[in-house]
């Protein structure tokens, strides 16, 4: 019976891994669609008021993380301006959502200058960030992972759709290798590459609330009431011996 339980556990683990790999392929497939390169809309400026959002602490965002790297990577104001604009148009998955021609028009800066700064941003952590499509994202990661297998590079360049559709026979025929070798290469790609590198930074589902030490409440009859919010404060106790010593010291000084 114990053996059967172990076999069932092993089977469930394998099925879970297979589902995770299939989801990974689904992620890749979603990025094979043509991306929309429209600029992101301007965010409305919210009035400063006592909203509950002001008491919420968010973890460092991807954009914040990239801007920190940008500060140490550029030496001129114009380069920082371009980099800041690029980073502001990188989505949470790590992809650039605006075309370089649009950036050139918006900033009135030549495209080749923007391409230079984009290449710089694409060298930032996490690997693959700043890519304009899935193919570019994975090719950036090839350099980071120091993978020298030309067959993997060819699969990424010419057979991403076939890989997502598990058309291993077609890939094998084009690369003149066996189907089993294609399967092995696919496994390497699935395990080593990340189609959503931006998700490695920040956790927008995790929200931490800042608890105030004091709460000021307005009374119905007028005036205010100050309440100490000590439910979450550490309880400090003084040893009775030290208390006696302190009291004795006060008596002597008086």
UniProtKB/TrEMBL annotation:
**Please, one GO biological process term?**
DNA-templated transcription initiation
> Which residue ranges does the record assign to the RNA polymerase sigma factor 54 core-binding domain?
52-242
GO MF assignments: DNA binding; DNA-binding transcription activator activity; sigma factor activity
Q: Where is the composition biased (Low complexity)?
A: 1-14
Concerning InterPro entries, the annotation shows: RNA_pol_sigma_54, RNA_pol_sigma_54_core-bd, RpoN_core-bd_sf
| Gene3D superfamilies named in the record | RNA polymerase sigma-54 factor, core-binding domain (1.10.10.1330)
Q: PANTHER family from the xrefs?
A: RNA POLYMERASE SIGMA-54 FACTOR
Its protein name is RNA polymerase sigma factor 54 core-binding domain-containing protein
Please report the organism this UniProt entry assigns to the protein: marine sediment metagenome
């Amino acid at each position: 019976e114990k053996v059967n339980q172990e076999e069932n556990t092993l089977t469930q683990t394998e099925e879970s891994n297979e589902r995770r790999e299939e989801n990974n392929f689904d992620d890749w497939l979603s990025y094979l669609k043509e991306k929309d390169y429209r600029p992101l809309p301007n965010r409305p400026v919210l009035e400063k008021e006592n909203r509950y959002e002001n008491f919420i602490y968010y973890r460092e965002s991807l954009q914040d993380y990239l801007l920190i790297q940008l500060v140490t990577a550029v030496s001129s104001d114009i380069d920082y301006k371009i980099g800041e604009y690029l980073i502001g148009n990188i989505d949470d998955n790590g992809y650039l959502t605006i075309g370089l021609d649009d950036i050139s028009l918006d900033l009135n800066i030549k495209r080749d200058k923007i391409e230079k700064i984009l290449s710089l941003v694409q060298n930032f952590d996490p690997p693959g960030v700043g890519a304009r499509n899935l193919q570019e994202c994975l090719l950036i990661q090839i350099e980071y992972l120091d993978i020298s297998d030309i067959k993997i590079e060819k699969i990424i360049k010419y057979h991403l759709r076939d890989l997502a559709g598990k058309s291993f026979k077609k890939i094998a025929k084009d690369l003149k290798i066996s189907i089993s070798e294609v399967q092995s290469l696919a496994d390497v790609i699935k395990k080593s590459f990340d189609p959503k590198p931006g998700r490695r930074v920040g956790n927008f589902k995790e929200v931490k609330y800042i608890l105030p030490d004091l709460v000021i409440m307005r009374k119905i009859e007028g005036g205010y009431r100050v309440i100490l919010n000590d439910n979450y404060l550490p309880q400090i106790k003084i040893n009775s011996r030290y208390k006696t010593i302190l009291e004795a010291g006060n008596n002597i000084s008086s």
